Amino acid sequence: MAIPKEPRQLMINLMYLVLTAMLALNVSAEIINAFFLIDRGIEGSNSVIDESNAFAMTALEKNAEQDKEKYSKLVDAAKRVQQISREFNSYIGEIREEMVDMSGGYYPETDAKHPGHPKGYKNKDVTTNLLVNKGKGEEIKERILNTRQEILTIINNLKGMEGTAINDESIAELEKSITLGISDDWERSKKPSWSYFTFNQMPLASVFPIFRKFQNDMKSSEAAVINYLVKQVGAETFKVDNFIPIASAPKSYIIAGDEYKADITIGASSRSVYDNMVVKVNGSSLKVDDGIATFSARPNTPGIQKYKVDITLTNPTTGKIETYSKEFEYEVGRRSVTVAADKMNVLYIGVDNPVSVAAAGVSSNDLRVSASGGGINMRASSTGKYNVTVSQPGEAKITVSGGGLTPTTFSFRVKRIPDPVPRLGRSSGGSMGNGEFKAQEGLIALLENFDFDARCDIQGYDLVYIAKREDAVDSSNPGARFNERSRRLADRAKPGDTYYFRNIKARCPGDSAGRDIGTMVFDIR
Predict the structure, then answer these.
(1) Is residue 147 within 8 Å of residue 102, measured between CB atoms?
(2) Pair 342, 354: CB distance under 8 Å
(3) Which residue of 96, 224, 466, 507 is most buried, as measured by CB atoms within 10 A?
(4) 3-state secondary structure 18-58
(5) d(CA 153, CA 175)
(6) Is the pLDDT of residue 491 over 80?
(7) Three-state DSSP class for residue 324
(8) Of 7 and 163, the one with more pLDDT
(9) Which pTM was predicted?
């Protein structure tokens, strides 16, 4: 298989090699998650290629309008390759879904541990039986080889076409860019077949990114063919009249002291555009080779850094000298990591504790977050955001690593929700008018100065009524509202009477039993 020239495709191939190496290890939960992470990464790359292919196809159709009779064959060939690509990717997708159905379908997207993952993600029997024993893997191999040959046949049928450079030499170069194919690694492995080498005893989760790579190879090959055909449309007479400065940097966030680099060019598709092109950054001219100028800087101050690009060239359509300008920016940071409880530096039992994990200079995809102690459980809610629950008082620890960071552990105290304060209306005791007292319906438990959305419920209390020169009368009241006996006692309130609320019990989220929250005394006036 040819080594791809594009950094994006090289990255995907390296991810595939890493995946293959990981399969030699025991399949732990972390590796399973890595499979799905790689699968999602390649899926995102596929979406970018789809957009690029659609744009390139539009460009081909518009460029071919210069001479529809001459260049219609190029458009037809590109459309045929697009159809082949759709059919191939649909074929791979159907096999993928067939294996998911055979292994029990998908978890719902709302599942906390396996959102949207196949239920049989560890299943090796389904993959081995279908892809190896029943020959579906060899069928995939033949489909890949036949599809590659079909694409090359389409291009070879255009060889020698007037007004193009479609010849043996250019087709040989194109063939190197067609990534869809079968590696000969399996032959050196001395395994009985390619499907055995590729799929035997592979868990379903590991097959997902492999299938996604097949689809990526197909889309990349489609892109290579369409771009090849675009170049064949009247290169000498092609004209453009819209230019956009472009800065392409490997990364837009760097660590202080690191070097920032960016390739700067103009968004154009004709080499004539690059004649006499001048590129300036912040007023300083840069050397231009084949329409590309490289800008570099080595900032030491963290923060947003900006630079202005001015590109001056001759518009091949109008013949006028024109200047196009645009401002770009990148961010400089220092490598660090923090974990902070969003509301206070303690984790409470019975509620969701929002926690943020931030690591300057480290991609969120590279971060590894783990937790222990206090019955802690962490659920990712968004990038860098987690909902944390705990169940045991004491200490919990959150450890962050990955992306070049030394594993760093942060300790948090785990506590019960603080005791609520009992209230009768808005009062916790003292003097109260007899009319106001009679209007009350029962007690509430109020969490004062507590920032979480939590509610404590009154479980019960004893109400004692003492009138002047009379014996005390009491009522055992379950729940928060006055029961019938308590209601009658409250309705007897008159100036000089005293009411005791004692043995007040409340239960808060996370409590295994009710807690005593004190006593209230009211003197009726």
Answers:
(1) no
(2) yes
(3) 224
(4) HHHHHCCCCCCHHHHHHHHHHHHHHHHHHHHHHHHHHHHHH
(5) 11
(6) yes
(7) strand
(8) 163
(9) 0.42
